[in-house]
Specification:
The protein is of the alpha+beta class. It is built from two helices and eight strands; from the N terminus they run ααββββββββ. An eight-stranded mixed β-barrel has the order 1-2-3-4-7-8-6-5.
């Protein structure tokens, strides 16, 4: 009779193959590269629009409308305080406050076909650029002799949405001489044509001045894209 002996089996170890371990190490080694690539793409997404804007501005922008005022914007904006750029008054801190012109009309619309902006609401003397375009208080009304001044918010151009007032003027720098700006005021449509563009400091308030030799329209937003460093001025004349 053959004797039998029972031996307890050793527990099985889940040993990963060299191939599996190699694949895991490979994936981990790729992680820094993926993160670096993602960072580069994110940085490029922010900086490239600014670079393209600077190149375009040097080639296309005209000389100042008037001799610029002393550049004291750094001193004005350098104070330790929070600046709310949704308020038009923050864009030109040294600009004088002009009295509202008498008008029964409080809102009108603006369209820029090239930028696909259609009947955007403009509030006369408004306070919140997140809710509408703002007609700067005291400047000429559409159709009048003088200078109609309209402020609009902007961000990086890739986030442009013509129906969102937070981004509505993001592509304003792409306008060119001859492009149309349509204003519907009190049931009358006024057709303005872009005549020049320039960039100024927040201290250069002469761009808000009134000139009564003709009927002008001035569109203003912040540049370079995504910053509040300077102001883009688009000047148009009534056709």
């Amino acid at each position: 009779m053959t004797p039998y002996r029972y031996v307890k089996a050793r527990p099985k170890r889940h040993v990963k193959s060299r191939f599996a371990l190699g694949e895991k190490r490979k994936r981990l080694s790729l992680l820094p590269g993926v993160l670096l690539l993602g960072g580069i793409i994110l940085l490029a997404n922010v900086t490239l629009p600014i670079i393209f804007y600077q190149l375009r501005s040097k080639a296309n922008f005209s000389q100042p409308l008037l001799s610029p005022m002393s550049r004291t914007s750094a001193q004005v904006l350098g104070e330790e305080r929070v600046i709310d750029y949704s308020e038009p008054a923050s864009w030109f801190p040294t600009a004088p406050k002009l009295p509202l012109r008498p008008s029964k009309i409080t809102h009108y619309t603006l369209s820029i076909p090239k930028l696909k902006i259609k009947e955007a609401v403009v509030e006369i003397g408004g306070k919140d650029l997140m809710e509408s375009l703002i007609h700067y208080s005291g400047t000429a009304l559409p159709g009048q002799y003088g200078n109609v001044v309209i402020f609009g918010h902007s961000v990086l151009p890739q986030f442009f949405n013509p129906e969102n007032y937070k981004t509505i003027f993001s592509t304003l720098p792409t306008l060119e001489k001859g492009d149309e700006v349509l204003v519907n005021f009190d049931g009358i449509e006024y057709r303005y044509q872009v005549i020049r563009m320039l960039e100024v400091d927040p201290s250069d308030t002469l761009v808000l001045a009134q000139y009564y030799d003709s009927q002008y329209l001035t569109l203003i937003t912040c540049v370079p894209p995504g910053t509040y460093l300077k102001r883009l001025i688009v000047r148009a004349g009534l056709r």
